[in-house]
Amino acid sequence: LQVYVILQGKIIERGSIWKGFWEKDFNILKDDEGQIDYLPEELTAAINTRAIEAIRKVGKLNEPQLNSEERSALALCIALQFIRTPRHREEMDKMISLNVQDAMRFDLSSPDKVALNKEELLKEVPKNEMEAKILEEISMMSEEELNEKVFNAVHETKLDIGLTKTGHSKGILKVDKIAEELYEFVFLFLIAPKDTSFITSDNESEQISEEAMSETVKDLRKLSELLKNVIPYWKFADPLEKQTILRIIFSELIVHENSLDYKLTMGFEPFKTRFVTLSAQERT
């Protein structure tokens, strides 16, 4: 395996058993006593198995479209893969930090609004060296100094707050909500040529700028609004307006006996079917 390391600007070679992209106990549940439960990984593996079976049907000649159960497995698989990526966890932590700090700044508008009890804080048993160091620093402060320090930290520094691995793994409890939306998606499958495969990663190295993402979201929102409004608009449109809509969506409309044949204009082709397959050999 050849891996290009962006920071070093060079290619490194590793064997088949290399685990450079693998992190131990990344998707787990851990209780207060340190006991680990691998339920998230076990559930993910079970869903992935069903989804892979469904995906293998795609692209075969005369194969019908996936049924509702297969679509559900595929939607759950994608949702599970999404919530367990490092990038998703980073964005979740960033959102939590911003929201918590904004709320704290609103509540603690002045140092006298900070009401920490030094005596109660020092009763806490440190769980690690960092907490022990913090408690030692607190023991050397007066309550006024402590409140002032907390106020300055909230208003002058960027708080770094996030979930633990267990906290992130509990996102699995909400995965059905994401899957419900994915179920209605139009899927594009890239089918690798025979005896080849795609190398993928769930921790992308390229990131889209906030400006580009904002513009993309605006375009998607506009498209969603147009698609949602075209049906009621069609119902009240006059013949000339309906003809205009048809010319935008369809390039050909042919009525043959009791059937209707049509071709969609470019841009609307993905909406012809819920599934779109594309061989890698067809891409240039």
Concise account of the structure shown:
The chain is built from ten helices and eight strands.
Care to describe what's here?
The chain is an alpha+beta fold. Helix content is 48%, strand content 12%. The protein has ten helices and eight strands. It has a two-stranded antiparallel sheet with strand order 1-2. Helix 1 packs across helix 2 (68-83) and helix 2 packs across helix 8 (175-182). The longest helix has 27 residues, at 210-236. The protein is extended.
pLDDT below 50 for ≥5 consecutive residues: which ranges?
275-284
User: Reading side by side through the largest sheet, how are the strands ordered?
Assistant: 1-2
User: In angstroms, what separates the terminal alpha carbons?
Assistant: 24 Å
Share of residues in helices: 40-55%
Gyration radius over CA: 27 Å
Helix-strand category: alpha+beta
Number of helices: 10
Structure summary, number of beta strands: 8
The run of helices and strands is EEEEHHHHHHHHEHHEEE
Can you lay out the helices and strands and say which pair or pack?
Blueprint: E1 2-5, E2 10-13, E3 29-30, E4 36-37, H1 39-55, H2 68-83, H3 86-107, H4 118-121, H5 129-139, H6 143-156, H7 165-169, H8 175-182, E5 187-191, H9 210-236, H10 239-249, E6 250-256, E7 259-264, E8 275-279
Parallel strand pairs: 5-8
Antiparallel strand pairs: 1-2, 3-4, 6-7
